[in-house]
Specification:
Helix content is about 25%, strand content about 30%. The protein is an alpha+beta fold. It has a single domain (about 1-145), classed as Aminopeptidase (3-Layer(aba) Sandwich), CATH 3.40.630.30. Strands 1-2-3-4-5-7-6 form a seven-stranded mixed beta sheet, with helices on one face. A hairpin with a 6-residue loop joins strand 2 and strand 3.
């Protein structure tokens, strides 16, 4: 993981996803000062996705919890449903585990819309378990937890 470049902040903030995944469309630049980091291709340094932790990873109405690091992520739209989710998710969670451990947080939490079967499957393969649900104007989210490794 590395900081997002200014051009990547703009590009990722303008990503548009197909079909129902459009709910994850960006709404403007992702500024690095808000905690976003880039995951780039090792050989080309091309942006593959981004991750964030803390307040930026929480959905509207969701609150922080003591000892828990909230983690969010986005895979570039043209890579979605291409078999990259597991490796991408593992890289994000390895980064998040380091961040969480450095902050004394022993639990990672990610939030996924309940209809997003592909993302839920990746999270479960990464060791997350459903802990709760959260509903807001965007829909019903499942809150998934896993310990920091």
């Amino acid at each position: 993981m590395r900081p997002l470049s200014p051009a990547e902040e703009v590009a990722a903030g303008a990503w548009r996803y197909p079909g129902r995944l459009a709910t994850y469309d960006g709404s403007g630049p992702l500024t690095g000062e808000r905690g976003y980091v880039a995951l780039a291709d090792v050989e080309t340094d091309e942006l593959v996705g981004f991750a964030c932790a803390g307040a930026e990873a929480r959905v509207a109405g969701q609150h922080a919890e003591v000892g828990v690091l909230d983690v969010g992520y986005g895979l570039r739209p043209d890579l979605v449903h291409q078999g990259h989710g597991g490796a991408f998710g593992a890289a994000v969670m390895a980064w998040a585990g380091e961040v969480g451990a450095g902050q004394g947080r022993r639990t990672l939490r990610t939030t996924v819309l309940d209809w997003n079967v592909a993302s839920l499957s990746v999270c479960r393969r990464l060791g997350f378990v459903e802990a709760d649900a959260h509903v807001n104007d965007e829909g019903r989210f499942l809150l998934l937890l896993r310990g920091v490794e």
